[in-house]
Write a structure and sequence with these properties.
Blueprint lengths: L1 E5 L4 H12 L3 E6 L6 H11 L5 E3 L5 H10 L4 E4 L6 H6 L1 H21 L4 E7 L22 H19 L4 E7 L1 E3 L18 H10 L4 E4 L11 E2 L1 E3 H17 L2 E7 L5 E2 H12 L5 E4 L8 E2 L4 H7 L7 H14 L5
Parallel strand pairs: 1-2, 1-4, 2-3, 4-5, 5-6, 6-11, 7-10, 8-13, 9-14
Antiparallel strand pairs: 9-12
Helix pairs in contact: 1-2, 1-8, 3-5, 5-6, 7-9, 7-11, 9-11
Bound molecules: nicotinamide-adenine-dinucleotide and uridine-diphosphate-N-acetylglucosamine (UD1).
Length: 334
């Protein structure tokens, strides 16, 4: 099976490249490197021993995408490409709506022109209305609280309408919870282009630099007072895409799947996990709540188990150990 990965050089995409190559798939990557590095692709080839084509392409460029589809016969596409920083999306809403929607539309139009109808889309657990209690299954009310989240919500809507209009389409909408960690080799991992806002990379950086991390609030209605999230190892997430490819081969229509572990961990659990993985005592101070945070947010992961035959197997310890390993081996990233 020949699979196009848009945004395949990014954090989740590069780990998915490794899993696909190791599972025997043929892949092509299209990425504009706006938030990633060609070095990540060289390292995937080094890890797997399997060379593959990488094209520097803006997915919003219909002409370039057309040429790519003319050059290769794709069986399916995994669409990772897009802008993903929540805070930045609040500051630059037009850019986020333009890039994310344009990429999603241009890709689907190009696929239809070339007779490719199998699509796996990187959505997000951020498409759920935040008032839903956890665990969150795929049927609860949707909503969003920032422009980034609305782009995912709108693209899901567009892809559902598309699948309803033409039975040849098969689209899996993958709602990721909190991807963390790195490949256990330490060869590839997360290197965000802008300063990270997420807990794991910030806590790893703080531990590495022997400075305290701020914990945003300890008065939430959770077991230890800090917020609970569903952290999932990026390699588990990557393997979920292989199952999604099998699913879109065998079904038509559009279907949403949570990719989470179904287990919630608090901020302090994560800091303890990093302490155990690194041997460096947790160093934190309690700070005010972060605007917009909710106390507890984790998946009901049953649907992916039943329909995809997939479940996350890596532990919080694995996530912390592998994130740390990448940091130690690549202090400056790629
Ligand atoms: P990432 O930024 O590391 O990867 C995205 C990749 O897309 C980058 O390599 C970037 O250069 C590329 N890209 C961006 N715009 C492009 C364009 N117009 N044309 C071609 N390439 C383009 O992000 P990631 O963490 O790997 O996330 C992948 C996808 O998963 C994104 O769609 C993101 O919104 C979604 N997602 C991520 C998370 C998370 O926490 N990491 C959570 C939920 C959903
Ligand atoms: C963020 C995004 C969300 C996205 C998700 C996964 C926001 C508002 N939401 O949410 O859209 O889907 O990442 O990528 O950005 N924390 C600290 N100290 C820190 C950093 C974080 O205490 O320095 C806390 C946060 O308050 C939160 C928890 O750690 O309670 C997890 O934060 P984060 O990693 O940003 O994930 P989400 O809050 O789930």
């Amino acid at each position: 099976m020949n699979v196009l990965l848009t945004g395949g050089a990014g954090y989740i995409g590069s780990h998915t490249c490794v899993e696909l190559l190791e599972a025997g798939y043929t892949i092509v990557v299209a990425d504009d490197f706006s938030n990633s590095f060609p070095e990540a692709m060289a390292r995937v080839q080094q890890l797997t021993g399997r060379p593959f084509p990488v094209h520097q392409i803006d997915v919003c460029d219909a002409g370039a995408l057309d040429a790519l589809f003319a050059q290769y016969a794709f069986d399916a596409v995994i669409h990772f490409a897009g802008l993903k920083a929540v805070g930045e999306s609040v500051q630059q809403p037009l850019r986020y709506y333009r890039v994310n929607l344009d990429a999603a539309l241009t890709l689907a139009e190009t696929m239809a022109r070339h007779g490719v109808y199998r699509l796996v889309f990187s959505s997000s657990a951020t498409v759920y209305d935040q008032s839903n209690p956890s665990p969150i299954d795929e049927n609860v009310a949707l909503g969003a609280s920032n422009p980034y989240g609305w782009t995912k919500y709108m693209i899901e809507r567009i892809y559902r309408d598309l699948a309803a209009s033409d039975g040849r389409w098969s689209i899996a909408l993958m709602r990721y919870f909190n991807p963390v960690g790195a490949h256990p080799s330490g060869v590839i991992g997360e290197h965000p282009g802008i300063a990270p806002n997420n807990l794991m990379p910030r806590a790893i950086n703080a531990a590495y630099e022997h400075r305290p991390i701020g914990v945003f609030g300890d008065d939430y209605p959770t077991a230890d007072g800090t917020c609970v999230r569903d952290y999932i190892h990026v390699c588990d997430l990557a393997q979920g895409h292989i199952r999604a490819l099998a699913y879109v081969q065998a079904h038509s229509g559009a279907e949403a799947f949570n990719l989470g572990t179904g287990v919630g961990y608090s901020v302090l659990d994560v800091l303890k996990g990093i302490e155990q993985a690194t041997g460096i005592p947790a160093n934190y101070r309690i700070e005010p709540r972060r605007a917009g945070d909710i106390a507890s947010y984790y998946a009901d992961a049953q649907k992916a188990r039943d329909a995809l035959g997939w479940r996350a197997t890596r532990t919080l310890h694995d996530m912390c150990r592998d994130a740390w390993n990448f940091k130690v081996k690549n202090p400056e990233g790629y």
